[in-house]
């Protein structure tokens, strides 16, 4: 009962966003107890919320090794990507986002693909970013990230000097996403691409 009570006290402090106090109680749960994995998972999120990304990485990696529950493992891959992204280690971030996609395609895969593409752009890997964004667009047409992905894809085409592809991509926003926050920006981007093509008469 002690370990179970420690876990639930930890949960209470977590819900109150007192993460340091929550850690104090989660850490009392014995590694062999039924609640140990839940406590370890919660500890990892405490460190994440405290922006202690180094300790969060340690905890999420332990969870991947010790856990057999698919959703826990997949979420740990995603959060590892997020931790490394926050630490500006974009190479490791992209690798963990990729593992999240490959481990359980569907659950958070649109988010992982989007963040992976952002990481790759920051690494100047435009080909990889284009591939990741197209994966999101082609497989998750109802995603909350869909217009973000299309707009970013247009920008990556500009960076890689694929101007015709950029025009086609921004025109998708104009024609199909009139309510998007990127609608006006897409018009500006089309004008920019024409200018860059020395075709500013249009």
Descriptive report:
By secondary structure, the chain is an all-alpha fold. It is 75% helix and 0% strand. Helix 5 (70-86) runs antiparallel to helix 6. It is elongated and about 75 Å long. The protein starts with a helix and ends in a 6-residue tail after the last helix.
Annotation keywords:
202 residues, mainly alpha, 75% helix, 11 helices
Euclidean distance between termini CA atoms: 74 Å
Largest sheet: none
* Overall average residue pLDDT: 91
- Helices, by number, come to 11
Secondary structure category: mainly alpha
What fraction, in percent, of the residue positions are helical? over 70%
Overall spatial form? elongated
Reading the helices and strands in chain order gives HHHHHHHHHHH
Strand fraction equals under 5%
Query: What does the radius of gyration come to?
Result: 21 Å
What's the count of strands?
0
Summarize the SSE layout with pairings:
Elements: H1 2-15, H2 19-26, H3 36-49, H4 53-66, H5 70-86, H6 90-103, H7 109-122, H8 126-139, H9 146-159, H10 163-176, H11 183-196
Put the structure in a nutshell.
With 202 residues, the protein is mainly α. The chain is built from eleven helices and no strands.
């Amino acid at each position: 009962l002690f370990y179970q009570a420690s876990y639930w006290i930890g949960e209470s402090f977590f819900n109150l966003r007192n993460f340091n106090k929550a850690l104090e109680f989660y850490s009392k749960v014995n590694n062999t107890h039924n609640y140990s994995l839940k406590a370890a998972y919660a500890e990892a999120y405490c460190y994440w919320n405290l922006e202690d990304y180094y300790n969060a990485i340690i905890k999420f990696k332990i969870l991947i090794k010790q856990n057999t529950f698919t959703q826990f493992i997949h979420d740990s891959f995603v959060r590892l990507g997020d931790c490394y992204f926050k630490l500006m280690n974009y190479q490791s971030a992209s690798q963990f986002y990729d593992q999240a996609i490959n481990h359980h395609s569907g659950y958070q895969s649109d988010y992982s693909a989007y963040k992976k593409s952002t990481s790759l752009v920051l690494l100047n890997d435009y080909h990889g970013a284009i591939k990741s964004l197209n994966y999101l667009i082609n497989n998750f047409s109802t995603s909350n990230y869909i217009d973000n992905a299309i707009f970013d894809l247009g920008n990556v085409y500009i960076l890689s000097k694929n101007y015709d592809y950029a025009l086609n991509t921004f025109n998708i926003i104009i024609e199909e996403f009139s309510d998007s926050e990127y609608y006006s920006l897409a018009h500006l981007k089309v004008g920019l691409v024409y200018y860059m093509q020395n075709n500013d008469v249009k």
